[in-house]
Sequence to fold (722 residues):
Amino acid sequence: MKIGILGAGQLGRMLALAGYPLGHSFVFFDQAPGESTAGLGTTHIGQFTDQQALATFAKACDVVTYEFENVPCETAHFLSTKVPVYPPPQALEVSQDRIVEKTFLQNLGIATPRFEAASSETELRNACQKLGLPCIAKTRRFGYDGKGQARISDLAEIPAVWKTLGGTPLIIEGFVQFSRELSVIAARDVHGEIAIYPLAQNEHIQGILHRSEIPAPELSPTLRQEAQAIATKVLEKLSYVGVLAIELFQVGDHLLANEMAPRVHNSGHATIDGMVTSQFENHIRAISGMSLGSTEARARSVMYNLVGTTPDPKELSIIPDAKIHLYGKSPRSGRKLGHVTLLNPSESTETALSTKVTPKS
Amino acid sequence: MKIGILGAGQLGRMLALAGYPLGHSFVFFDQAPGESTAGLGTTHIGQFTDQQALATFAKACDVVTYEFENVPCETAHFLSTKVPVYPPPQALEVSQDRIVEKTFLQNLGIATPRFEAASSETELRNACQKLGLPCIAKTRRFGYDGKGQARISDLAEIPAVWKTLGGTPLIIEGFVQFSRELSVIAARDVHGEIAIYPLAQNEHIQGILHRSEIPAPELSPTLRQEAQAIATKVLEKLSYVGVLAIELFQVGDHLLANEMAPRVHNSGHATIDGMVTSQFENHIRAISGMSLGSTEARARSVMYNLVGTTPDPKELSIIPDAKIHLYGKSPRSGRKLGHVTLLNPSESTETALSTKVTPKS
Fold:
C-alpha cells in the first residue's frame, strides 16, 4: 500500500522504517521538508489548510495517518472524504484540547487529575482557589514537551502566568502527588482486536522525556489491569484504528489518566528493539488492514532520549547491547535527535549510557 | 555518512533499512532502477564499466559497499581510488571464481570438497574420472541459486553437460555425502575485531534457499569452533571489513567449506529479528567505522524464503510471532520476493507458515 503520513518528523521516519518490510511505500505531507524522512519517500510540501495540495497528496495514498496530534481536524476530515484516515479524526478532536480530553476520559469513568477551565485572569484565579495551590496551568491547545505550562505556587504569580501563557484559554490542573509517571501504549486493528504493550515507566527532565523503561518495574497486577481497562475503553469508544498512547500518574495503587496521544509515542520507542512487534509496526499493521503482532516483551528495555546534542555514534556503538536510533536532524537545544535502547542492561552499562546523554542541569 | 551500495536489490534494501537508524543515508548504483530500493535513497543508473558514471557516484558517497559478488573487480578497484570500498576488492576476486576461491580456502588449511578445473570437454571427462561419479560440474563464474550447475552420474552425460553449461571454464567437485548444510556469518570491523553469528542450518529446494534455522540445532562444540576458526582465518587473511558468509557441509563431525560470499547472505536474514544485531546492521557498523554489535541469539529463529509468489500479507500477519519482510518486487518464477522469520515457533506455527510458502514440486 501507499501510506501517506501527515508530518515528516522522527515518528514518520520510524513508521516508514517499520512499514517498508511489510511491503508498503511512503508519502509524507508537511509544511517544510523533513530532515528525518529525507530519503525515505516522497514529501509533499504544503499548508495543512491548502485543499488543493491535500487533494494531490490524497491521490498519491491508499491510506493516510498522522504523526502528530496538532494536525488541524479540518485537514483530517477533508482527507477522509478522499481516502481512509486512521486513527479516526475524532481522536484528534478529543486530544487537541485538554479540557475536551479530560472530560472525554471522565465520561468513560476514567479518573483524571482534578481540573478547571479558565479563559481570563479572573477565571484563572478562581480555578486556583478552587483547586488549591500548588496547581498547574496549561494552554488548552498546542502544548508539548512541557511547553505552554506553568506551575502556580502563590496567587501573586497569577498575572505573570496569565501573560506568559499568552492569554489563551487554559486548563488548570490540581497538583497530584504521584509516585511515578507511566504510560500505556495500545493498538486496535480494523477488526476491533486490541493489543496492549507492557506499561512504560517514564522520567522527564525539563519537561522532556529522558528515560523510559518497559516493562515498568514492580507493577502490581491491579495497576496493569487498570491501565489495560483505560486503554480498552478509549480505543473502543473512538472506534480507533492504530496506536494510541495514554500518559498516567500512579497514585498509591491507582492510576490517573493525564493525557492521550492518538499516535505512536516517545515512551514506546523501546518497543522497536524490546518487544516482538514495535509500536511503529503495529500502527502500520493496523492502518493497512493486517492483524496486530505480539506486544510481548523480549527483554527489559531501557530507552534514553538524545536531546539537543548527540554523542559520537562510534562511542555509542561500544556500549553492549545498545540499539542506536538517530533521526538525521540537525542539533538544536531541546530538540529530540535520537534515542538509544539498552536490552537487559547491567547497572554499569546503563551508567555508561546515561552519563553520555543526561542533560547537564 | 553517505553510504553507496553497488546493486539495488533486496540486500541493498535491508542494508539501508538497518543503516538509517544509525544516522546514515544511502545512494545506490545499478544498471536499472531497483524495485527493492525504490524510496530508500537515490539510485544512479549506469553500466558497471562506465567510469564517468562511477566517478559521479563516488562523489556522492563517503564509503562504498556492494550487495552482490559479481560486481566487476575493475569497478571496485576504480571506485577504491576515489573513496573507501569495503569489503576489500580482493574479496571479490577470490569469491568470483570457484577455483580461485577453493584454492584460497585450501591454502588457509580449510578443508573443501575435492575439485578439478576443466576448460574443455576432454578435461571435464578426465576430471570426472579422477574424482569418481557422481560429481558436480559448475561454471567457475557467475553461478547463483543453483544456476550454472549440473550433476554428472554417468560419463555418457558429459557432452550434454558441457553444452548446457555453455562451454565455459568449469570446476568439477567430488560428490560429498554431507549430513546437512550450514553457514557461518561473521563480521570484522576496521579495528580488526571479529564477531561471529551462531551457525545457520540451511535447506534448499531446487537450488534456492528455502529454510534457515539459527542457531543450527544440535551443533557440537567442535563444529562450532571449527566454523569460527574458518571464518576468522578468511576474515584476517583478506583484512576484511564488513560481513562475510561461508557455506559449509557437515560431514560426520567436521566441516567442508563450499563457497563464500563477501556480503550479507540470505541464510543470515533471520538475524534481523532473532539476534541482538542483524547482519545488515553489523555490515553497516563495520564499513562506517563503528564497533560491531552483539551477535547473540535472542530466540530460536526460523526463516522461510518467499519465492516466486507471496501469500497475502494479511494471512501472514495472523501467524504468531511471524516477522514479515517483503522486498517490493514483482512476482516471477524463482524470484526471491521476501522472507518470514518465526521466533521460537511451535511445530504447528511452523507448519502454518511452511504450508503457505513451500514451492509445489
Summary: The first helix of chain B runs from residue 10 to 19.
